[in-house]
Amino acid sequence: MTTVRLPLFPLNSVLFPGLVLPLNVFEERYRAMMRDLLKSPEDEQRQFAVVAIRDGSEVAPSAPGLPDPTARPEQGPAAGFGADPVRAFHEVGCVADAATIREREDGGFEVLATGTTRVRLRSVDASGAYLTAELEPLPEEPGDEAGALAEGVLRAFRSYQKRLAGARERSLSTGTELPDEPSVVSYLVAAAAVLDTPTKQRLLEAPDTAARLRDELELLRSETAIIRNLPSLPATDLTRGATSLN
């Protein structure tokens, strides 16, 4: 089994291969990560792994809180993730390639990264300034009838977009061209659909592209039917979701 070791950036969201991830980095553990990434040669990829948080806090508490208002906030690379950090994260994540890392005057960083490949979390090391992880790359197998399924998902996604735009009382741009490569379609739809984190995580973990597309086809049809029957649903209810501060 081939594994790689990379810095670990836990988030309350799921990153998919091919999708862009903007980050506003302000916690010291992640500042240290970005400083180290900047030390790598410019001709090398500056990579870290993103995993969705199963149980824990994306941002570590920085002040006394409940239930004990006098308790000192937890410190360190695993702050907010418990005694065994690996249990706090979903098992499958995505490698992110940081194209831009820009340091601000306040010492924080603005980062623009892109998801590349899926990885399985094998272990987490909390001995340094930030978490690192041993990761097993996961191949993307096409599965059976991926091409035909991708066509069906694209049709269902266009219908879903129209219903969603109508519920939001917004116009839908029809000039946007969507990809036709099945794996790209599967990841784009997974990222673009208004779904909760557990559902997006399930799509990321799909055994192959065809399985992901089958799941998406059912989800899109179900979500489209729900939106059709809720024409007065406020846009804020459709778009409500966690925002990454880091």
Automatic annotation (TrEMBL):
Start and end residues of each stretch annotated as Disordered: 59-82
Protein name as it appears in the record: Lon N-terminal domain-containing protein
Pfam families in the record: LON_substr_bdg
SUPFAM superfamilies to which the protein is assigned, alphabetical: PUA domain-like (SSF88697)
SMART domains membership: LON
Domain of life: Bacteria
InterPro entries: Lon_prtase_N, Lon_prtase_N_sf, PUA-like_sf
Domain Lon N-terminal residues, every copy: 6-224
